[in-house]
Amino acid sequence: MKKMLAAFAAATMLMSSMPASADLIVPNLSYRTGPYAPGGIPYADGFNDYFTLLNERDGGIGGEKIQVPECETAYNTEKGVECYEATKGQGALVYNPLSTGITYQLIPKVSADGIPLYTPGYGRTSAANGKVFEWVFNYPANYWDGASVAIRYLLDQNGGDLKGKKIALVYHNSAYGKEPIRTLTELSKKHGYDLLQIPVDHPGQEQKSQWLQIRREKPDYVLMWGWGVMNAVAIQEAANINYPMENFIGVWWSGSENDVLPAGMGANGYKSLAMHGTGMDYPLYGDLKKYVIDAGKASGAGDQFGSVLYSRGMYAALVISEAIRKAQQITGKSNITAADLRDGFEQLEITEARMTELGLPKFGQPFKASCSDHGGPGAALLQQWDASAKKWNLITDFIAPDDEVLTPLIMEDSAAYAAENKIAERCK
Amino acid sequence: MLYREAGDFKTTYVADSQTFPIKFDRIRYYIVVAIAFGVIPFVIDDYWANAVFVPFLIYAIAAIGLNILTGYCGQVSLGTGGFMAVGAYACYKLMTAMPDVPIIVHVLLAGLITAFVGVLFGLPSLRIKGFYLAVATLAAQFFLVWLFNKVPWFFNYSASGQITAPERSLFGIAVTGASTPAWAKYLFCLIILFTLAWLARNLTRGSVGRRWMAIRDMDIAAEIIGVNPLTAKLSAFAVSSFYIGIAGALFFTVYLGAVEVGEAFGIQKSFLVLFMVIIGGLGSIFGSFAGAAFLVLLPVLLKNVLVGRLGWPTDLAANLELIIVGGLIIIFLIVEPHGLNQLWRVAKEKLRLWPFPH
């Protein structure tokens, strides 16, 4: 008993978190285990590798090295809170948890602690309203933009008319999957299509009944808000019922190699939205290969290089590093604080010229943030899977969302949040 | 030497029937309570509160609740996650509907509402038991989670179906919401846990508890000697659900602040609390604490050692953590099927005889 107690006491002393350091610290709340790992692993690798590249090639940002301590959340909110608290004390500059659930946890916490939260393409959509959400940024696009872009694309395909069409939404039955419902309902009023809501419960391995329902109802189009194993299962099931793949469109979180490869040729023609370009025909990948992959400094197993979600993690890291640069430029010092970085995020502008300079021409849309606009323009591309070449191909240019419908929804939702939490509007 | 009954004289029946009959035990208990109330609140920081103490305290409440039902009354339940969800959603609806009422009232009311729901789902226990009852409570788990996901009234028609705890304070100090100081969170949960544990200890020692235990040990014999199975079983369900509901309310309001029902209160939560009770020891209050500590603190500790100190990759550490915790559970249950509490009891028994083991 005594031995056990002594061991326990020794162990509890070890529980205190790591000491702070002088470098710029950007924690990576990643998940490499659990049902969402197929999405979490490539994203985390891309995120780490971009910062490794900056450290190796440029010696960091503005002469400051970047440290990326990783913490495993397993997509679980309790572990996410633990990770947040553990890394907060080290002087974290910004959080990017890649989970809508954890984002909802962290929004009030980061606002109280004064640390920016960057959630590109996920998280709380109405955080696009910077007047209410001072510390949260979700440019260049969010879920409601995605829903609107998908409908715009379908309008385009149908000569501008969706009257009488039936559109099914297969969604992850969680905060994440429910996000687009409000927009799609609103848009159905405007364009006259029928919306069929089909929820899939966590983690999404069991979808037989949902796809039987789709076979029975025969919707003209199926939209999907899925993540992790749910995507691969859905695409396999759609192939099993011979659903026409070109009428099946996933959100950008349902459009990676891991989702379509298991279904083999059955997935041929499946479409998904994309926040950014796909493939490796950009100069930056040459640098990544030279300084990170070939140097043996790649994160994880190094086998995700160039995949869709790897590029997304890399893109998120790129935006963060640009914001750090901006903050250094504003304050005139290299060792910035979390509060400085917030200003950097708010005044960030990424132009096409800058993207070319960074080695990613025509990869992401140019955007400019402001005090009230934390959401960016919200345009998205469409990509289609070519199963024989095992390659995603971009099939459209950037499509802009329908802001006429979205802006009032964002205002309404953020106003409700402000009222609930007694937040006064900024940016007068 | 220190741990013995000799010389510890008792002259009244009250003194003789106290919870800690041995002086050393009593002193130890007072010291633990004094440290918990008098020292930790002054040294606690955000990490220790949010990652270690608050989840431990809340899971301890849930474990005591399930222990009352399963350990003391012998009714197997897999519906803990669902009942925690009832507590959380009840508290959310009360907090948003009546913002001016103190938060402690909402938490207690959430417990009462859960008690009512628990009694409803406890009704089948009058006819069925064992595995059959486990399946009935499993149905409660799935039904409740489905209900809170399906009906928008429960989450105030928010776009995402998440519920978020607004800031509420007690005596002018915030206890829910993001700006809550670490010590306030800790103390709020600790006071509730202390009260509930004290209450549970005394309930189980009294006639109510003896009725529960009679039903657990042999329900037919209990009925013959005059225990009413209806009131005994339903009161166990009510008290147990009250505790679990309060744990759910605190889990949502104080600990996480925002909750998604499928993720936070899914079936794995029911299993987690059941494992706490089994590992800690069925039918013991101390066991509930020990089980909660084992399953909440050990993973955090392993993570900090493997990733924080040894610098291992996070995925390797996460998988190893599952293997170690799972392996320890198996070893514990082989070595001591009655849980940590039995180890503790044997250790105390040995200490009483020491240094003369015969």
Automatic annotation (TrEMBL), chain A:
Pfam family of the protein (one): Peripla_BP_6
Domain of life, source organism: Bacteria
Alphabetical UniProt keywords: Signal
Boundaries of every Leucine-binding protein domain copy: 28-387
Signal peptide: 1-22
PANTHER family hit by this protein: BLR6548 PROTEIN
Family: Belongs to the leucine-binding protein family.
Protein name per Swiss-Prot or TrEMBL: ABC transporter substrate-binding protein
TrEMBL record, chain B:
Main localization, broad class: membrane
Keyword hit for Transmembrane helix: yes
Subcellular location: Cell membrane
Residues passing through the membrane, by range: 27-44, 50-69, 76-95, 101-123, 130-148, 183-200, 242-259, 271-296, 316-335
Membrane topology: Multi-pass membrane protein
Keywords: Cell membrane, Membrane, Transmembrane, Transmembrane helix
PANTHER family given in the database record: ABC TRANSPORTER PERMEASE PROTEIN, HIGH-AFFINITY BRANCHED-CHAIN AMINO ACID TRANSPORT SYSTEM PERMEASE
Protein name: Branched-chain amino acid ABC transporter permease
